């Protein structure tokens, strides 16, 4: 694709499924990098359906402890520093946003939760896989990059927006992936 050898996979939703898929790419296909492209809900109110967000960092928003007085969020354990696959000037030259992508195993469809995520993490978007994929990449020394197309605004009508925008966001994902591959000259896997 775009003159590059590509292993293209579609992973089911959720952190566990995304981590399994990433590990299969590492162990079975020995990929040099993982570029994950998919859907996300907008946490940043300036993002619209169809906006593109490129990760500056990823975090699990549902990792922590539930105490009698509420949830205590913690950083998940990590085995190292992420080896990000640089997007270079590609994303900004296209007018795409950079930001924090939050990951959790729940689809966010509540204004209160969306606003809390924005306040707590200064996040741009929320998905169900990026942070899990990043953990696998860290453990395997594989550079990674996350590109998310906004499918909904993570509010009470998020599910309806997601269902209505899924096909057009899928098409946009393919276009953005082709743009990225045509532009990129990414580092190889450290072994």
TrEMBL record:
Zinc-finger found in the keyword field: no
Pathway: Amino-acid biosynthesis; L-methionine biosynthesis via salvage pathway; S-methyl-5-thio-alpha-D-ribose 1-phosphate from S-methyl-5'-thioadenosine (hydrolase route): step 1/2
Domain (Nucleoside phosphorylase): residue spans on this chain: 2-178
GO aspect biological process, one term: L-methionine salvage from S-adenosylmethionine
Enzyme class of the recorded protein, top EC level: hydrolase
This protein's record includes keyword Hydrolase: yes
Any one Gene Ontology molecular-function term assigned to this protein's record: methylthioadenosine nucleosidase activity
Entry GO terms, CC: cytosol
UniProt keyword list: Amino-acid biosynthesis, Hydrolase, Methionine biosynthesis
EC code(s) of this entry: 3.2.2.9
One Pfam short name: PNP_UDP_1
PANTHER family referenced in this protein's UniProt entry, alphabetically: 5'-METHYLTHIOADENOSINE/S-ADENOSYLHOMOCYSTEINE NUCLEOSIDASE, 5'-METHYLTHIOADENOSINE_S-ADENOSYLHOMOCYSTEINE NUCLEOSIDASE
Protein name in UniProt: adenosylhomocysteine nucleosidase
Species whose genome carries this gene: Desulforhabdus amnigena
Gene from which this protein is expressed: mtnN
